[in-house]
Write a structure and sequence with these properties.
Number of strands: 5
Low-confidence stretches: none
Shape: globular
Oligomer: single chain
Distance between the termini: 52 Å
Structural class: alpha/beta
Mean pLDDT: 89
Order of helices and strands: HHEEEHHEHEHH
Length: 159
Amino acid sequence: MPFKRRRLGKTDYNKRLRLLTSKKPRLVVRRSLNYITAQIVEAGKEGDKTIVAASSKELKKLGWQFACDNIPASYLAGLLVGSKAVKKGVKEAVLDAGLYTSTKGSRIYATVKGAKDAGLNVAVSEEVFPSEERISGKHVEKFKSMPQEFEKMKGKIRG
């Protein structure tokens, strides 16, 4: 009988083994309907250890007035986790996208782009990142103030 998490469709053990054999910390990106969460996780004998974590929910505390489940919020969450990781001394990571399908320009890759812009080295092709227009929120007609707020948030996160 297969492992319970495999039966439930929660874990791909072959993919996890390939990630762990790299011996690098993982940039774990998970999304929900309302938020996106990014963590830097190291594997150990006792289990995985989270070094740094950030969520798009934290953006509300910093003054973000828009939804926390879109591409600009995903980028800012990645920027937040990347800056925290660099402060902790983490220089590179391997992307762990879980069971999500790899889609060019998705929220997952917006988060990775934010982490890379913060100074974290993640081995991902530049082709999969969303365009700068989508990252800054210029494509949203309804919220004309989003690009200005986006730049303010970037400044707050970078310090």
